[in-house]
Amino acid sequence: MVAMPETILIGGDLRVNRLGYGAMRLAGADIWGDPSDRDAARRVLERAVELGVNFIDTADAYGPETNELLVADALHPYPPGLVIATKGGIVRPSRGRWDSDGRPEHLRAACEASLRRLRVECIDLYQLHTIDPAVPLEDSLGEIARLRQAGKIRHVGVSNFDADELARARRIVEVVSVQNRYNVSDRSSDPVLAVCERDGLAFIPWSPLTQSPRDADAGPRGKLEDWATARGVSFAQAAIAWLLTRSPAMLPIPGTSRVGHLEENAAADALRLTAADMRAIG
């Protein structure tokens, strides 16, 4: 089996290790408000960087706003080479709501606010969090393109896009990454992943560990769980290793609010499945 690269290049100038960290879980319950233990949350971010993570993903909707503030509080001034990615385009009017807002005026205000919270003059990777069905995609991404031209954004990514939507997006602005749900049990974004592999885009899987119950013995999750048991590793480690083996475009960002789980996830970077393993899991 061809050896997978240890790093991935985003946008031609951001070289990051292929195992990142998703900060979403550091917000309060239901991704609402501050964490119950802010010092512990800070320590998770600090430990991630100590372990060699140099790609951190957040969003203005996480908290809302509190997640970006925490990232800056824990890590600013950012060490050289650390890439902070954030997202805009979703608003949280209440704890249980995640409403799309792709209006150009909202995205401009959201980007400006993220710049302030993250304490940067330019956001390394700014991602449209989702498509707003009430706003033409050309309007939403057109505004993000203007923010990039103004020097407020270095690179543009998209999230929760299918292959046709990605093609539309790329006619509007240069897109360097896609962040979609993807794991051993949910591969509905395989057509998007294929585009990323072909064209050198980063594919950032969210929900990389899958919360679905174990499948029947013939199912991929069940087979991966058996693989993990046979090797004395956790299912979380096996799930991350499967993603890293699945494609060189893959940039997993497993999230956690505990240092112990973070260290366990980081150890998965040393695991790889063989070609025979991948065929057996399906």
Question: Can you describe this structure?
Answer:
This protein has a single domain, classed as Alpha-Beta Barrel (TIM Barrel), CATH 3.20.20. The chain contains 10 helices and 11 strands. Helix 3 crosses helix 4. It is globular. The chain starts with 6 loop residues before the first strand and ends with a helix. The model has no long low-confidence stretch (mean pLDDT 95).
Q: Could you give a quick summary of the protein structure above?
A:
With 282 residues, this protein is α/β, with parallel strands linked by helices. It has helices spanning 38-50, 66-75, 104-118, 137-149, 163-172, 190-199, 220-231, 235-246, 259-267, 275-281, and strands at residues 7-10, 14-17, 21-22, 55-57, 83-88, 90-91, 99-100, 123-128, 153-159, 175-181, 202-206.
List keywords for this structure.
two-stranded antiparallel ribbon, 11 strands, TIM Barrel, globular, 282 residues, single chain, 10 helices, alpha/beta
CATH class assignment = Alpha Beta
The helical percent reads: 25-40%
Give the low-pLDDT segments: none
What's the number of helices?
Answer: 10
Number of domains: 1
Give the beta-strand count. Answer: 11
Largest sheet, strands/sense/barrel: 7 strands, parallel
The neighbouring-strand order within the major sheet is 3-4-5-8-9-10-11
CATH architecture descriptor text:
Alpha-Beta Barrel
SSE class: alpha/beta
Could you tell me the strand content as a percent range?
15-25%
